[in-house]
Inverse folding.
């Protein structure tokens, strides 16, 4: 591999890893704070992509579509937590798995009913459709750089909110001791609703920004969910920092494996996960 190809793969790997973090952060936030194993999290990624396509058709604007999709995803998260997830707080993980698997089937059926099963696509916004020359013959799309920077901004924002704001303090307190937070007069159920809705919105927004660079197809949420679970397991269940580091690792391993060992690329992230768990059985940054 020459230096130019290495550099391009490095950028691709980091960009893919940052996108994975955007999805996995919501998954690990919901599990870390609420203890809810949400297998339907990938479905929110799919819903975000389809909403982006639909509202681009209606408004002609990707930015407006992204904003509307994020708000709708937030409302979906609010309704799902209030009507379904809230019933699981005192149940075991098996009940959580069964309910959230059922939610996957419901979301897939609704997707087919609303938008059909044909592959769809969203055009890259015109303002971000250019490319930056890396060498005399290789150019890199501006939109992919935008996606990476957007994910970095979200990661920095999450760090600030969780570590520097009152909401973040309550989230960390709720993660550590729910009963004590309730004794202090904090409405823990409202806090959980906010956390779950934010987690859903993060996954849906990831689907929105991924829509112009990937095909929008039925079942796309299940594939990304498995990869995100690999990220969360490597980083440590419930750790945002672990999700960030794990996502970058998985992104780089997956991208370089597709070039260096294409015949084994589909299993390399799982081999990498097994290697990490042999060294750190609880993940790199288990909380």
């Amino acid at each position: 591999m020459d230096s130019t190809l290495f550099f391009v793969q490095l950028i691709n790997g980091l960009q893919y890893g940052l996108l994975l973090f955007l999805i996995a952060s919501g998954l690990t936030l919901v599990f870390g704070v609420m203890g809810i194993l949400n297998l339907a999290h990938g479905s929110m990624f799919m819903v975000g992509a389809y909403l982006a396509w639909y509202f681009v058709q209606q408004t002609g604007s990707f930015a407006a579509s992204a904003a509307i999709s994020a708000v709708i995803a937030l409302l979906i998260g609010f309704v799902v937590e209030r009507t379904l997830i809230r019933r699981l707080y005192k149940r075991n993980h098996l009940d959580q798995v069964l309910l959230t698997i059922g939610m996957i089937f419901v979301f897939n059926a609704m997707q087919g009913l609303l938008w059909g099963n044909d592959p769809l696509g969203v055009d890259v916004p015109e303002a971000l459709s250019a490319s930056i020359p890396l060498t005399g013959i290789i150019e890199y799309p501006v939109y992919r750089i935008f996606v990476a920077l957007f994910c970095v901004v979200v990661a920095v924002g999450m760090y600030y909110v969780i570590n520097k704001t009152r909401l973040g303090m309550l989230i960390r307190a709720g993660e550590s001791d729910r009963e004590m937070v309730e004794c202090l007069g904090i409405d823990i159920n409202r806090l959980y609703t906010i956390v779950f809705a934010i987690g859903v919105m993060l996954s849906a927004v990831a689907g929105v920004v991924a829509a112009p660079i990937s095909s929008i197809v039925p079942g796309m949420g299940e594939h990304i969910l498995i990869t995100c679970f690999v990220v969360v397991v490597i980083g440590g269940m419930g750790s945002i920092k672990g999700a960030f580091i794990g996502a970058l690792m998985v992104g780089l391993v997956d991208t370089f494996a597709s070039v260096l060992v294409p015949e084994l690329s589909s299993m390399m992230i799982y081999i990498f996960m097994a290697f990490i768990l042999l060294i750190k059985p609880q993940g790199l940054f288990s909380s």
